[in-house]
């Protein structure tokens, strides 16, 4: 038993730098062509998690390092969601869901995103499927809320009737979304 314990420690010591360097090198794919990503989402029957970030946003970095990178590295979300990042900086352009080249700021304006980070859960045509997540206020609970919104978006694509009956992370009807910030009460 002592030998096994020693072997585990030695192997872990060699793998730890590799694991941390992989984690540091991994970045969330930056969106360049939402029309292509949308086609992929439709063919794979997956939602797109579009995280809107800005340069110098420490909360955006926290979101990417503590949540999005591990989701990509772990591979457990590969069959649940396509993860992309929209970076807001001067001159940034993107192909939208209709194949038009627009600035990243124009796209964020279309979705009425005014705070970074904001996570949008959309289908292959760009329609929001689940309640957006604005900012990070409780990192300890964030992962669970993120999972709930991903599951809700996935359910709206794969089983819309069942999705209509659930209560978690639902997008509010358009008539109720006239205000910038909403809270969904159970």
Question: Would you mind describing this structure in some detail?
Answer:
The chain has 186 residues and is of the alpha+beta class. It has 6 helices and 6 strands. A 4-stranded mixed sheet has the order 2-1-5-6, sandwiched between helices. A hairpin with a 5-residue loop joins strand 3 and strand 4. The longest helix is centred in the first third of the chain and has 24 residues.
Offer a few descriptive terms:
alpha+beta; four-stranded mixed beta sheet; two-stranded antiparallel ribbon; 46% helix; Glutaredoxin; single chain
Question: Care to count the β-strands?
Answer: 6
Q: Would you state the CATH class?
A: Alpha Beta
Structural class: alpha+beta
Question: Quick one: overall form?
Answer: globular
Reading the helices and strands in chain order gives HHEHEEEHEEHH
> What fold name stands as the CATH topology?
Glutaredoxin
Q: Tell me the distance between the termini.
A: 51 Å
* Domains (count): 1
Total count of helical runs of at least 4 residues: 6
Task: Report the helical percentage.
Answer: 40-55%
Strand content: 5-15%
Strand order of the largest sheet: 2-1-5-6
Summarize the biggest pleated sheet: 4 strands, mixed
Task: Give the CATH H-level superfamily.
Answer: Glutaredoxin
How many whole angstroms does the radius of gyration measure? Answer: 19 Å
Level-2 CATH architecture: 3-Layer(aba) Sandwich
**Poorly predicted ranges (pLDDT <50, ≥5 residues)?**
1-24, 174-186
Mean pLDDT reading: 83
């Amino acid at each position: 038993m002592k030998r096994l314990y020693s072997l585990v420690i030695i192997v872990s010591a060699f793998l730890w730098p590799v694991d941390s360097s992989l984690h540091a090198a991994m970045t969330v794919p930056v969106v360049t062509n939402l029309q292509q990503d949308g086609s992929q989402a439709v063919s794979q029957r997956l939602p797109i998690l579009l995280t809107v970030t800005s340069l110098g946003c420490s909360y955006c970095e926290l979101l990417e390092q503590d949540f999005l990178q591990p989701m990509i590295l772990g591979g457990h979300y590969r069959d649940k969601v396509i993860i992309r990042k929209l970076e807001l900086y001067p001159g940034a352009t993107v192909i939208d869901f209709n194949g038009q080249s627009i600035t990243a700021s124009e796209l964020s304006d279309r979705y009425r995103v005014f705070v970074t980070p904001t996570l949008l859960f959309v289908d292959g045509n760009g329609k929001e499927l689940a309640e957006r997540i604005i900012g990070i206020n409780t990192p300890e609970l964030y992962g669970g809320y993120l999972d709930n919104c991903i599951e809700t978006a996935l359910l709206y694509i794969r089983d819309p009737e069942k999705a209509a009956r659930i209560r978690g992370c639902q997008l509010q009807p358009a008539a109720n979304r006239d205000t910038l910030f909403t809270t969904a009460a159970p």
